[in-house]
Amino acid sequence: MLDQVKQIILVLSGKGGVGKSTVSTQLALTLKEKGFKVGLLDIDLCGPSVPYILNLEGQNIHQGPEGWIPVYLDKEQRLGVMSIGFLLNSRNDAVVWRGPKKTSMIKQFLEDVCWQDLDFLVIDTPPGTSDEHITVMENLRQVQHCSAVIVTTPQEVSIEDVRKEITFCRKTNIPILGIIENMSGYECPTCCHCTNIFSSGGGKSLAEIAKLPFLGTLPIDPRVGQLAGKGLPAVREIPEATTSKVFNEIVSQLAGMVSNGT
Amino acid sequence: MSNVPENAPHHCPGTQSEDAGKASACAGCPNQNICASGIPAGPDPAIEIIKNRLSNVKHKILILSGKGGVGKSTLTSLLGHGLSAKNADINVGILDADICGPSQPRVLGVRGEQVHNSGSGWSPVYVKDNLSLMSIGFLLGSPDDAVIWRGPKKNGMIKQFLSEVDWGDLDYLLIDTPPGTSDEHLSSVQYLSEAGLTGAVIVTTPQEVALLDVRKEIQFCKKVAVPILGVIENMSLFVCPNCHTRSEIFPATTGGASQMCNDLGVSLLGNLPLDPLLARCCDSGADFTTELPQSPAVQQLHHIVDRIITACEKSSG
């Protein structure tokens, strides 16, 4: 099913709560804004956030003649989304599964979803380096044009886990596009004083140590947080924000990859 | 719980059924012979060993959250410091069950320490005289080392941690978990089924995207019958160090933890404000409760610790 996908982008982080799902959704939305055809696959089975962030809760997956039909955000079907959230009866339902069951679900997501022709497939992952990640890597081994974006926050506690994720990518031969640092600073809306709540610069120095490209710094911007639940792209809603600039840059870099066919 | 194994073929009659090993669905199942032999598998012998090993541990508390990065490890370490500071006679142990992303060695400032194995088991690392820690972080050669393990191997590690660490006499054993409702969580609950879990403390942040996953964790606790001691809301408010304006960085658009607790009938243990200095302390491994005793976060923490002590004593009757 994935042979019609030009480029697969895995959004990874060893650490939880650093903004993988926010980055995945905004990345997918930005790519869609630029006119690409995009798929977004959420393989976080125990904590799927993508349906909520994109305001798609309550939608259903349908079975088509060629496989599962993803949920489309727009009528033109330029952004298709697949998540276990669409398969649960209630948004509060817990998926209490051990590894083997998670593995087979992810295999189904990779093999049985009818994405059609896609320019990009963005895969949002849970934290860690375990079943979900191993399964995705094993199944994508044969697929060309697969690369990873790593998300971190600046604190050392987060960097420490992300270093493990980089080791994981290197062991499994997944090329890393670069590192995004999220939640860098918070600008007080009253006095404009910038506080580095979770310190700063950690992502950049990690990129230097690991000899990886640094893709940009995303500040804590409540306006971006408020877009969660609405499914709106930051690049259109708040084009002047730093977040939008970073996503625009990343996307133009990705666009080059597809047109060059590398 | 049903006795149909999770990885069983479709229409498996269940391992305890009369048809076990004999139904048509059993053909080709690798465990068909075991089922057909009629010898019941029985509970994992480790459960009994763990019960004996932890017989001198009064209260065993799981720190859970469906969501990652909400502060499980930070709160576990703060609770460890808070409980052990109450009284020098209170002994606290922390078990870091996050196998793929162990944070406790850094947060507690004991990175690079070694665990020793003796006749009585693995000795945990002592942060203070009455606060000890066991984490897979101590077993890794370098901070870059990744633990790329599937579920069964992680379960084996947790089993070893529970059955082979020589904690000595403990008043509280805090078990820090990774995000989710999967192997680590199921195994911890299962292995502690005989030893007796006092309950779970659930950590969340105020925004809906976190609450969404945390509700799943509460449902998990109900499913596996783990009592919930209460919910802690972390990163509730941010006070600008410059102008002291309070702002909601992670806005509680759906009423935050208090609304969720009302809806689901669980108690709220307290709210911790977002303090940049706390994040700093976690990075350096300093004890925030003694570094900044005047911080509003520390004062809140003491309330939370008291509530947890009360809840534990109530549950043990």
Could you give the topology of this structure?
The complex is a heterodimer of chains A (262) and B (317).
Chain A: E1 5-12, H1 20-33, E2 38-42, H2 50-53, E3 62-64, E4 67-69, E5 71-72, E6 79-83, H3 99-111, E7 118-124, H4 131-140, E8 146-152, H5 156-171, E9 176-181, E10 186-187, E11 194-195, H6 202-210, E12 214-217, H7 222-227, H8 234-237, H9 242-260
Parallel strand pairs in A: 1-7, 1-8, 2-6, 2-7, 8-9, 9-12
Antiparallel strand pairs in A: 3-4, 5-6, 10-11
Chain B: H1 32-36, H2 45-53, E1 57-64, H3 72-86, E2 92-96, H4 104-107, E3 116-118, E4 121-123, E5 125-128, E6 131-134, H5 151-164, E7 170-176, H6 183-191, E8 199-204, H7 208-223, E9 228-233, E10 238-239, E11 246-247, H8 256-264, E12 268-271, H9 276-284, H10 288-291, H11 296-315
Parallel strand pairs in B: 1-7, 1-8, 2-6, 2-7, 8-9, 9-12
Antiparallel strand pairs in B: 3-4, 5-6, 10-11
Helix pairs in contact in B: 2-5, 3-11, 5-6, 7-8
Outline the structure in words.
- The complex is a heterodimer of chains A (262) and B (317).
- Chain A contains 9 helices and 12 strands.
- Chain A has helices spanning 20-33, 50-53, 99-111, 131-140, 156-171, 202-210, 222-227, 234-237, 242-260, and strands spanning 5-12, 38-42, 62-64, 67-69, 71-72, 79-83, 118-124, 146-152, 176-181, 186-187, 194-195, 214-217.
- The mean pLDDT of chain A is 94.
- Chain B is α/β, with parallel strands linked by helices and 317 residues long.
- In chain B, helix 2 (45-53) runs parallel beside helix 5, helix 5 runs parallel beside helix 6 and helix 7 (208-223) packs parallel to helix 8 (256-264).
- The longest helix of chain B is centred in the last third of the chain and has 20 residues, at 296-315.
- The two termini of chain B are 27 Å apart.
- The model of chain B has no long low-confidence stretch (mean pLDDT 92).
